[in-house]
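User: For my dataset I need records formatted as: sequence, then structure tokens, nothing else. Please produce one.
Assistant:
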Amino acid sequence: MDDQTRTELEAAAFRRLRDHLQERTDVQNIDMMNLTGFCRNCLSRWYMEAAQERGIDMGKEDARTIVYGMPYDEWKDRHQTEASAAQQQDFAKSPPDH
């Protein structure tokens, strides 16, 4: 496989993951962190870092809007629930580099 095709496939997979996470608003970030070690905020940070590495000026909120499909504060108001004690306890056990 050539590099261009690989890049296009990777981009398509990213878009599908992003779209899936935008549709699955029932899945909380803390659950993603506890199970996978990353969440929507991580994905948006990685996106922002990739842009900045290429000289593109992108802030955290711009990247979050791309990943969440709306401003982050709006997503939180609509979809984020309070983390349970058990979720918070599991999160506290996870590696600190989130």
